[in-house]
Write a structure and sequence with these properties.
CATH class: Alpha Beta
Distance between the termini: 16 Å
Strand content: 35-45%
Radius of gyration: 13 Å
Structural class: alpha+beta
Number of domains: 1
Largest sheet: 4 strands, antiparallel
Strand order of the largest sheet: 2-3-1-4
CATH topology: Alpha-Beta Plaits
Shape: globular
CATH architecture: 2-Layer Sandwich
Order of helices and strands: EHEEHHE
Helix content: 25-40%
């Protein structure tokens, strides 16, 4: 099951993102369930959120993955949305 994790960073949280980026990327590598991922950008081109496509068994697995992401544990996100997603192109 593909799940899109769409997260918006808290205001003025760029340093929190930078401080936890290596741990976040290591988590992505170690879990093996991320099909695609990348930062969302603000008007200035700075990282301001995340889009992660998870390939997991169910929504509970996606929720668990999201809760254990180092970004989430660092309190980076203002909000996180998990949405079932259907890949059609690409």
């Amino acid at each position: 099951m593909l799940i899109a994790l769409i997260a918006k960073d808290k205001t003025n949280a760029l340093q929190t993102r930078k401080d936890n980026r290596d741990a976040h990327l290591a988590y992505i590598d170690s879990t093996g369930v991320v099909a695609q991922a990348g930062p969302l950008l603000d008007e200035a081109g700075e990282m301001a959120g995340s889009l992660v496509i998870l390939d997991v068994t169910d929504m509970t697995a996606a929720q668990d993955w999201a809760a254990n992401d180092p970004y989430a544990k660092a309190g980076l996100f203002e909000r996180v949305e998990l949405v079932a997603w259907n890949k059609v192109i690409g």
